[in-house]
Hints:
- Helices cover 89% and strands 0% of the residues.
- It is mainly α.
- The mean pLDDT is 85.
Amino acid sequence: MTTRTPQHFLMALCAAAAMLAGACSSLKTPATADVAVSRAAVDNAAGSGAAELAPAEMASAREKMLRANQALAAKNYKLARELANQAQVDAKLAQSKANSAKATSAADALNEDIRVMREELDRANAPQ
């Protein structure tokens, strides 16, 4: 039978406190990283023209980023992480819509060019 000494109890208490401190600090770091990654996603979407081509999604992403930053400043790391992730999703959706609109516009322009070329070919091949 072993006896527990106060020294063993103190060591166990210190180990538990260290683990708790590590867990608390690890909550802050991912929230800060999530906010930074989401901020980059919003910036990338804005740079791709999403503000003009997907204004509702960009407005939502920016509003959620603002709230995520406020939550981070208030040390509400769970809410900051959730809002940052939502902002990132909104920004990616905005960027996808912008890319789709650009691709559709390019395809329409190409189809118009093809139509004009066909008309020119038909005129060139028409009997005179």
